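Pinned message: reference record for L-ascorbate oxidase
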Amino acid sequence: MGLPLLAVACCALLAFVARPHCAEAAKARHFKWEISNIFWSPDCEEKVVIGINGQFPGPTIRARAGDTIHVELKNALHTEGVVIHWHGIRQIGTPWADGTAAISQCAINPEETFTYRFVVDKPGTYFYHGHYGMQRAAGLYGSLIVDVAEGEEEPFKYDGELNLLLSDWYHESIHTQMVMLSSKPFRWIGEPQSLLINGRGQYNCSMAAAHTPGATQCPATAVNRQCAPVVLPVLPNKTYRLRLASTTSLASLNLAIGNHKLTVVEADGNYVDPFAVDDIDLYSGDSYSVLLTTDQDPSSNYWVTVGVRGRLPKTPPALAVLNYRPNAASKLPSLAPPVTPAWDDYAHSKAFTYRIRARAGTPPPPATADRRIELLNTQNKMDGGIKWSINNASMVLPATPYLGSLKLGLNKSGLAAPAPAPDTFSHGYDLRSPPANPNTTAGPNVYALAHGATVDVVLQNANALAANVSEVHPWHLHGHDFWVLGYGEGGYRGDAADEARLNLRDPPLRNTVVIFPYGWTKIRFVADNPGVWAFHCHIEPHLHMGMGVVFAEAVDRVGEVPKEGMMCGATTSALINGGHL
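Predicted structure (tokens):
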């Protein structure tokens, strides 16, 4: 006889982690991983996923600020390369460990091993994921939690900790998805079948069917521990830190916990001025910490709801249970799950986003910028297919990683140098209509940034190919945090009205930021981390379709680069012939 479904989840629970009390010196933390395809049932439907050491999601890395992480990674995939990006880790002094294929390193070939070594320089909620092809959408991801350094304390108090890694899940393989996205004529991959909480979901049934007309109740017993619902055990009248991160391929999400307020205290590894909300939006690439106080009726359990935002939801919400001990984990909440705000209620989304401000003590941005780059996001056609473009160029990555080719000076030895990407676009472009000329071209989209320059980037959204459609795009910058200066509606003009919208007093530091439909977002960062860094939409199919740029910063100042990370493309012969990285 199977165990009760929620009891299985509780016995297998890894989400609850007691707050560490022991102090320890900064240290080197070593991990040995093997990446391979495995059979798994994330939503009770068995599929092939990319796992690490035979598990999905991958192992959680836990470290303290200042620690050095060593990950010896073997690629046991049979026919494809692999890399791991450490999302939110700035890789100061180690740009070769950023884990972006064709930018910071070569893909690790099957049966080869590569060792990532880097320092986690500041505390926060992070995660890691594949950054080659669409491997993130195949399940190659896991949590990376960095606690404060020895002798330091967080600027807020809590009694325990819960970690939720949110994702979406397709039943179609990523290889089929990539063929569809590249096909001529274009074939859209559709919406994901399930949403996952810590890698678990339920397809074609609901734990809360009694509150969901037309839904099928999930079985009372678990046939597979891999998709057992997540249960979050808590004690009454305590405060818990909920670490949240979204590694979705497509979906923007909203999370709420029945009858409980959430106080936002961290965003992307940076402290923010605390504020309370009923629910929280998470775009792909976002991470947050929120404080949850268990001050409700202790005789009840409560639903945790994760639903789709920003797209017409064809994927049902994911559910977990906040289990007030000593109640049984199998005791379903009596109240209906929180209802996710309407998918297109952007006023709700903006109201939350605009409240995020830096906590007192956060370094302020420079008062002015040395350079402004304006990036128009458009959907276009190219050679019978559909692409996403930036300033009318759809990003195509090279066979030779930029970090290697630029550091070796191969552009001076016959390798074509990337043409300078334009800093702006025609402001006569009609943002509210499908493009008059829908055609685009391929381009490297590389921007060379002067060392130490203060750079403003304006992300400008526009209408897609279909009329009255403008999508949400979360943009993620590698190698840096940036200040989010402000948001606006319509076209950015840079005039007094736009400047009045900017926040130079307490803008939050982030590494991922959203642009809303038909709007703009302005960020500022200092190009003080030599390397070659991706800046791209974090929606996996959009990046695959060309929605990104590359920032090359003072590559001549980069220290020694491991040769084993650059043995592909034109760098191979250069290194064999005595080239020095």
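Pinned by admin. Summary line: Residues 174-182 form the longest helix (9 residues).
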